[in-house]
Amino acid sequence: MRASPAVPSIMAQESSQVSRSARPPSNLEREESQLWRLLLLFMVLLAAGFAALAWERLENLPYHLGALAVGTLVLSVLFAVYAYGRRREVSELKTLLHGLQEHVGAAPSEAQLDQLSQMIQRSQRSFKELIDSFEDAACAVSLDGTIRTVNKRVAEMVGLPYTAIVGHDVYEFIAEPTRSGVETGLGRFLERKHWAGTVRVVLKNNARPLYFDCVLNGIVKSDEVVGVSVLGRDVTEQREKELRFTELFETLQEGVYFSTPNGNLLDANPALVGLLGYEKKEELLSLDAGDLNFDPGQQPVLGRASGDRGAVRTREIKLKRKNGTPALFLDSSRAVWDVSGNVIRYQGTLVDITDKRKMERELLQQEEFRRRLLESFPDLILVIDLGEHYTFVSSRVRDLLGYQPEDLLRKKISDLEDHSPELASLYHDVASSRQIFASAEYGARHRDRSWRTMRASASQLFDAESKLSGVIISVRDITVEKKLEEQIVQSERLAAMGQMIGGVAHELNNPLTSILGVSELLQDAQTSEAARKQLVMLQQQARRAAEIVHNLTYFSRPPAPGKTRVNLAEIVERTLNLHAYSLRKNNITVDFLREPTVPLVEADPHQLMQVFLNLVLNAEQAIREARDRGTLRIRLGCTGDSVWASFHDDGPGIAGESLPNIFDPFYTTKRPGRGTGLGLSICKAVMKEHDGSVEAANAPGGGAVFTVRLRAAAKYTQPGR
Ligand code: ADP
């Protein structure tokens, strides 16, 4: 009778078993308790009868009163016989129904249903009330379709009193099964006198189809079937559930399966058949558990280990498609147990997550790519949400500001001790949409307390719904860039000054030459000793002035395009001459000693003069800071093939923490306006250009020593002056 697949019907059967066991035979109970009450009444009447009989003055009673006691006794006995008979019928029925309920896992046996059917036949005679107590529908119909008897359940369904049903044609009340349909199968029934199965019934008063599990027995009179007794259990609800299950099973997009405990497929829905690449379900069901397992490491793929209790389990499994490719599924399954608690099968759903996992992997790769991109990006990337919290901080923050990303993450901008107000206002401008994109330069405090110059560019960040979700800022450390800019400005200024000095010196040269020439001429023409002496002095001073002017032009002349062989001693002396006035004024004695033979070096004399001048200037400033007079010891010598010059002052020396930084551009410990921090960095650059070096140290006896080293020019040596 059932057209639905085997397994959903199993499930529907289970649910019907539950509903059957939950249905108490309430009418029977009522009947039984009524009998008990009748029995009690009988006992009371019997007792009254006996009491009356035993009454000692019975003899004296008038005849008709004596007959009353005997009559009561006789009535009681008749009543007892009736009550006993009823009670037997009721308990017979009760045992039968109880027996039906007991067999929760199985359908009622043929014998039990036959017994019921016989009772219905008997009910035509005397058990009408009893069959009324059935929850199931019962009726007897003659072969021509006339209804002979029905129980209360049938009357309720039809919605009419017995009198309006009994004696009427059955097809007045039912649209289905049709008369022709029934007559087709009548021949076979008359042969067997028995039929059992599910019948679809459509009543005329209700279009909803009803389903009954029916047992039909022939009513036989003198060996001839004259009618049919029908006992039908309403299984409509179960059947509807079954249909719903079937529909769900067939149409669900997720795979649904039923498997044996060791993982062999019992049934699979069309979705699963398709997901595994099969055309026919039978093809899939014929496979062994192992054939489906893509990775033999998983044991067993759809079943479970023997010790498993069968509780709900969700996990990822890899199944083999028909074409051999793997398919990743999310398997949620649980066991179905029999009445004794043994696992009889597993049922579960399989959701294909192959694409989902692939997408997740791709997303992960993209995420990794994004992370690495940000890590390798020279700029620091910050994301600040609309609540002013840092939601992303790239790891560049370690290099740029000495912090860990976690030190900033989830903190508010204003909560950070050293936050930059310029950065905060940049954020507010962009977050409030006053500007869509903005940039600013600002000073940021490094964790080591030093200041860095930063350039930040901020733009708006939107979420998936295109709603503004925060501000993304890229920050670049431009400290060096900025200093280099300043350095260029400074050197441009120095170059301009050099040009000016050159011009002045050139202008002074002519008058000085005239003074020298005229004073010499005058000396020859002068006869007075005193006047000659004055003229000699004039000439000496004019010579000195000429030498200063000469040195100035030497210093300010643009660097020679190539290097020449130069005598370091001569360069040192020229530098000292140029700076002689200042040294004298500041009471600084210069003690210059050189080894007798110092090789020539290949160098640009102007640049070397600049190096020495810086060293002399620094020494002078250092001494002046500490005292009002001092000594600068200059030594010149050679070691191996290198020529060196050392400048040792008796100033305070270099502070320990400054020593590693003094050659950095713009590093200065001098008061603002006094030092640029460029002198030593230029020295270093020049010496590097010459393949030489300049080093600084503190002398053991006090003061700083700067040593310049250069490679001696090949083959050339020239005694020092
Ligand atoms: P500036 O002289 O403009 O500061 P420099 O690069 O010439 O720039 O020098 C850098 C720093 O080196 C000075 O600020 C000073 O602290 C230190 N320094 C240089 N020469 C001496 C010296 N002879 N004695 C002590 N400190 C010195």
List the helices and strands and how they pair.
Blueprint: H1 6-21, H2 26-54, H3 63-102, H4 110-132, E1 137-142, E2 147-150, H5 152-158, H6 162-165, E3 174-176, H7 179-192, E4 194-203, E5 206-221, E6 224-234, H8 236-251, E7 255-259, E8 265-268, H9 270-275, H10 281-285, H11 289-292, E9 313-320, E10 326-337, E11 343-352, H12 354-376, E12 380-385, E13 390-393, H13 397-401, H14 405-408, H15 421-431, E14 437-445, E15 451-462, E16 468-477, H16 479-525, H17 529-556, E17 564-566, H18 568-585, E18 588-594, E19 597-603, H19 605-626, E20 630-639, E21 642-649, H20 679-689, E22 693-698, E23 704-719
Parallel strand pairs: 18-20
Antiparallel strand pairs: 1-2, 1-6, 3-4, 4-5, 5-6, 7-8, 7-11, 9-10, 10-11, 12-13, 12-16, 14-15, 15-16, 17-19, 19-23, 20-21, 21-23, 22-23
Helix pairs in contact: 1-8, 2-3, 3-4, 16-17, 17-18, 18-19, 19-20
Bound molecules: adenosine-5'-diphosphate (ADP).
Residues 614, 618-619, 622, 649, 651, 653-654, 658, 662, 667-670, 675-681, 704 line the site of adenosine-5'-diphosphate.
What's the short story on this structure?
With 721 residues, the protein is an alpha+beta fold. Helices cover 46% and strands 26% of the residues. It folds into five domains: 1-133; 252-358, Beta-Lactamase, CATH 3.30.450; 377-473, PAS domain (Beta-Lactamase, 2-Layer Sandwich), CATH 3.30.450; 478-557, Helix Hairpins, CATH 1.10.287; 563-721, Heat Shock Protein 90 (2-Layer Sandwich).
